[in-house]
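Here is the promised in-class demo. Please do not try to memorize the tokens; focus on the logic of going from shape to residues.
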């Protein structure tokens, strides 16, 4: 039996977390679940297979990080990308929502680098893929603590623009949530998740995702 299969049995609703390696996916899941078993690492590539946490009939899934991983070959990176895409295709019926986390401090530089190579940045590809699959996808811009406060609005506008949301980013408060997991500042993202649970008539699940710690 596949590892973690029992956790998936009977799950009716699922929230998946996707994003490049090292953006803070596991850190955020640990922040709101308080589960120490979610591994967080200084080294990218800590999470290599989907990890599940189960609350009632809700599944929270921490996906492996895509993109750069130190000491990991390109072929393995493609395996990670294929694993994610296959997982989403196989489970799209029960996936209500995806949270794509990006590192706010490096996102725009990365996009610029990919564009210079005439390649579509993997974050943008993944965001478009999720939406094409009909999955309600929100963007959490993490590590706001690493952005110069004077440049914050401009950075968020730039990120929104890259993902096809016309700036100012504040027009998209139902989709974009700036957070700093490290400082426990995750209210905006918790709010977006709770809103989706409410829309799905699942206020009973609010207790697992409180407004604050
Ligand atoms: N400065 C800063 N660092 C953060 C923040 N959130 C997480 N980190 C750090 O980022 C690093 C990576 O965090 P993880 O949660 O392991 O990242 P991940 O996205 O799960 O990474 P993979 O499992 O490789 O995909 C850790 O060293 C965290 O402490 C934040 O808000 N600010
Ligand atoms: Mg992780």
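The designed amino acids, position by position:
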């Amino acid at each position: 039996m596949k590892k973690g299969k029992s956790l998936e049995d009977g799950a009716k609703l699922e929230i998946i977390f996707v994003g490049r390696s090292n953006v803070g996916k596991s850190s955020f899941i640990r922040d709101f679940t308080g589960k120490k078993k979610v591994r967080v690492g200084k080294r990218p590539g800590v999470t290599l297979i989907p990890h599940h946490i189960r609350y009632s009939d809700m599944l929270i899934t921490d996906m492996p990080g895509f993109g750069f991983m130190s000491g990991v070959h390109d072929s393995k990176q493609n395996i990670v990308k294929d694993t994610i895409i296959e997982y989403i295709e196989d489970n799209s019926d029960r996936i209500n929502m995806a949270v794509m986390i990006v590192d706010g401090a490096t996102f725009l530089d990365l996009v610029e680098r990919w564009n210079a190579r005439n390649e579509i940045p993997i974050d943008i590809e993944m965001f478009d893929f999720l939406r094409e699959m009909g999955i309600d996808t929100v963007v959490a811009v993490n590590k706001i603590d690493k952005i110069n406060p004077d440049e914050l609005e401009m950075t968020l506008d730039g990120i929104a623009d890259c993902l096809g949301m016309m700036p100012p980013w504040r027009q998209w408060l139902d989709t974009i949530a700036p957070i700093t997991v490290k400082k426990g500042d995750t209210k905006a993202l918790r709010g977006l998740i709770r809103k989706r649970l409410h829309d799905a008539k699942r206020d009973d699940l609010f207790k697992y995702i409180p407004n604050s710690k």
